[in-house]
């Protein structure tokens, strides 16, 4: 018989997954090769060692969504071939967004620099895409992320005096989940 396991069980888009096939047979330990498939595409063939074969699927090879893995034991002179499959899902990488404003008190016609930091809370690497900067819930500007940071300089020209709530909203990308910063108060004098 053939069984197939994947680890870790909680997979994120940047996780390296390990597929492990175990083959058992009556009267001895099967030998031969196991072919591993991901979503119907051959990703590798590994020789059995003590009835087990493992293959690592590199980080980033699995996009967000549902995936099917299969192992096919090709058989040998003693044992016939067999098939095992497993279906699982890959989740978007959780992110966290923080925001700073410098300065937080701005004279009329002055400028403040808004800096958003986007970090992944699982795995390694950095989130991609862009960040929306909102003032009282209305998009003020959008800036690309570079090395985990998005930055924009905003002018207060024509802005009425008062205190405004500014947030940075990261909408996510193909691999990363969305997150929004806690609000930061910016006062225009």
Characteristic key phrases:
mainly beta, six-stranded mixed sheet, 189 residues
Amount of beta strand: over 45%
Structural Rg:
25 Å
**What's the quaternary structure here?**
single chain
**Tally of DSSP β-strands:** 17
- The 3D shape can be described as rod-shaped
Number of H- or I-type helical stretches: 0
Task: Please state the average pLDDT score.
Answer: 94
Structural class: mainly beta
Q: Distance between the terminal alpha carbons, to the nearest Å?
A: 75 Å
Instruction: Name the poorly predicted regions.
Output: none
The helix content, as a percent range, equals under 10%
Main β sheet profile: 6 strands, mixed
Order of helices and strands: EEEEEEEEEEEEEEEEE
Description:
Strands 10, 12, 13, 15, 16 and 17 form a six-stranded mixed beta sheet that branches. A five-stranded mixed beta sheet has the order 2-8-7-4-5, with no helix packed on it. It is built from no helices and 17 strands. The protein is rod-shaped. The chain has 189 residues and is mainly β. The chain has strands at 2-7, 11-12, 17-23, 33-38, 41-47, 52-57, 65-73, 82-91, 95-102, 105-106, 111-120, 130-135, 138-144, 149-155, 162-170, 179-180, 184-188.
């Amino acid at each position: 018989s053939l069984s197939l396991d994947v680890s870790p069980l909680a997979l994120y888009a940047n996780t390296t997954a390990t597929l492990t096939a175990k083959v058992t047979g009556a009267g001895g330990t099967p030998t031969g090769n196991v072919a591993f498939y991901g979503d119907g595409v051959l990703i590798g063939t590994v020789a059995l060692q003590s009835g087990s074969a493992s293959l690592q699927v590199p980080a980033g090879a699995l996009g967000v969504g549902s995936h099917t893995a299969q192992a096919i034991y090709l058989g040998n002179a003693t044992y016939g071939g067999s098939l095992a499959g497993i279906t699982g899902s890959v989740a978007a990488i959780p992110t966290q967004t923080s925001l700073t404003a410098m300065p937080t008190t701005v004279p009329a016609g002055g400028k403040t620099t808004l800096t958003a930091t986007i970090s992944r809370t699982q795995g390694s690497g950095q989130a991609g895409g862009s960040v929306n900067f909102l003032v009282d819930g209305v998009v003020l500007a959008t800036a690309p992320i570079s090395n985990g940071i998005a930055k924009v300089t905003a002018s207060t020209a024509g802005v009425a005096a008062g205190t405004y709530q500014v947030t940075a909203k990261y909408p996510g990308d193909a691999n990363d989940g969305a997150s929004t910063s806690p609000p930061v108060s910016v006062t225009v004098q």
